[in-house]
Specification:
single chain; 475 residues; alpha+beta; Rossmann fold; Uridine Diphospho-n-acetylenolpyruvylglucosamine Reductase, domain 3; six-stranded mixed β-sheet; elongated
Length: 475
């Protein structure tokens, strides 16, 4: 057995990456790492008692070069007599876009394909990430201000949750081997491989580290810098594993919740309770915020230390302050809540409501209905409906608030804005509350009792009932 294959075997055993009887799907680009991984697993499959297959994605980004990669992979798998799954994906979209965006979309499409094939084949995905990839990832995350999770680098094994409770593991058997060891192994095996010309473009951060920064560090500070950084990443992985239960509990204690509520005072989003958040140690505060961002955004890509610090500054500030940590996320302090939501431009809507009838308010995904009921059954539920008296018309208007709106909640009429502030309605939700008027006066504001002058009372004649239902789309 070759020394390279021995190290792959030790890594698989050390991290328990594969089990006997498993099917392994190698992510095979045709580059040196993936080719070396495939050859090693083919040599080890008898020892490991696994079945090996491969998958390749042609992103159609480099013209003939992409097609040549596909041809190479097909020939390699044919000689090895293993199953190959190929997808040709038109990755580039019309118009010009930053190369970084294109690369990220290609990565996402590639992993989507790998995971879908693995789920169908009931296989574990194996990728060719090596020790140099790990050290580069560590430095990238370090320079961007990552937390403990980010500095953990590339995990030897990651479990991915797909739809219908299906899970697919992604393993990295080459993490203990350097790029030079990969190439030396291929040379010993006299095995050709493909080279992606874009990997030499130092306008990409990772390529800059690979071709300029890390060689400088190796020459000036530490010839074994990649292995040193790999060990450091391992320490952070162990630290994260140790701290995760405590940090998860702290996050759950601070998390207010998310999802669509029937209350007029909530909407899809996620919030942290500020008093509980600020009661924790500063390190724990940062990790709680990172968890909130990860849950809301679906990941922590491009989240820096400064983003987290800005959010905590908002948490310690006054109600109404907000910040934008990027990727379409807005974080705003609303009284004792730190609310995570999407960027929303100001909304303005106005609809006519026939009596009887209903209308769907697209801007806030609510359906408003009006119907006549007997006065004896009139009983107002301020959270769901309003029963109105002395309304003889057959048309009403449903809108959101306007500058200068006044509303009567007791003996006197007051500015609606003052009432909303007094009731501690979050500023981000005020424009979403429904206002019902007859063209002259406001009869009802969602979430409040109707104007006393329009309120139905037991024993009266017929009355008008207004109901509001939350819907995700118009029927």
């Amino acid at each position: 057995m070759d020394s390279f294959e021995e190290q792959v075997f030790r890594t698989i055993t050390r991290y328990r990456l594969l089990n006997k009887g498993e099917k392994v799907l190698v992510a095979l680009s045709g580059g040196p790492d993936s080719v070396a991984l495939l050859l090693a697993l083919l040599e080890l499959r008898g020892w490991l008692e696994v079945t090996v297959e491969a998958a390749h994605v042609n992103h159609l980004l480099r013209g003939p070069e992409s097609d040549q990669d596909e041809d190479f992979v097909r020939a390699l798998c044919a000689r090895a007599e293993i199953a190959l799954h190929v997808s040709r994906i038109e990755t580039r979209q019309p118009g010009n876009e930053p190369r970084q965006n294109l690369e990220e979309r290609a990565r996402r499409l590639r992993y989507d394909f790998l995971l879908s094939v693995a789920a169908e084949r009931q296989a574990t995905v194996a990728t060719g990430h090596n020790l140099n990839d790990l050290s580069e990832t560590f430095l990238l995350k370090l320079f961007r201000g990552a937390g403990v999770s980010g500095l953990s680098g590339i995990y030897p094994r990651r479990r991915n949750q797909l739809e219908n409770e299906v899970t697919v593991d992604v393993v990295r058997p080459l993490l203990d081997l350097s790029r030079s060891e990969v190439v030396e192994y291929l040379d010993r095996r006299e095995q050709a491989y493909r080279q992606d010309s874009s990997n030499r473009d130092v306008s990409f951060d990772r390529n800059l580290l690979r071709h300029e920064v890390i060689p400088l560090l190796e020459g000036r500070l530490n010839p074994g810098i990649s292995r040193t950084l790999g060990r450091t990443a391992q320490l952070f992985r162990e630290l994260e594993d140790f701290l995760s239960p405590t940090l998860d509990d702290a996050y759950k204690q601070c998390r207010e919740g998310k999802g669509t509520s029937s209350s007029a005072q909530t909407r899809p989003g996620l919030a942290l309770r500020v008093p509980e958040l600020l009661a924790h140690h500063p390190f724990v505060q940062k990790e709680i915020v990172r968890r909130a961002l990860k849950e809301y955004r679906g990941g922590l890509k491009d989240v820096s230390y400064q983003h987290v610090a800005d959010i905590l500054k908002i948490a310690a500030g006054a109600s109404g302050t907000e910040c934008d940590p990027g990727n379409g996320v807005r974080v705003r302090r609303e009284f004792d809540l730190l609310r995570f939501g999407g960027k929303r431009s100001s909304i303005h809507f106005e609809y006519e409501l026939s009596v009887p009838g209903n209308v769907y308010i697209t801007e806030v995904a609510k359906r408003v209905s009006a119907r006549q009921i007997s006065g004896q059954s009139a009983c107002a539920d301020s959270k769901k409906s309003a029963v109105l008296l002395n309304f003889a018309g057959n048309r009403l208007r449903v809108r959101n608030r306007r500058v200068g709106d006044r509303y009567r909640t007791g003996a006197r009429t007051r500015k609606l804005k003052e009432i909303l502030i007094e009731r501690r309605i979050p500023r981000s939700l005020r424009d979403e509350l429904l206002v019902l008027d007859d063209g002259n006066e406001i009869l009802w504001v969602e979430g409040f009792e109707p104007d006393p002058g329009f309120r139905a009372r037991p024993g009266s004649g017929s009355a008008l009932e207004i109901t509001v239902a939350h819907e995700t789309f118009a029927l």
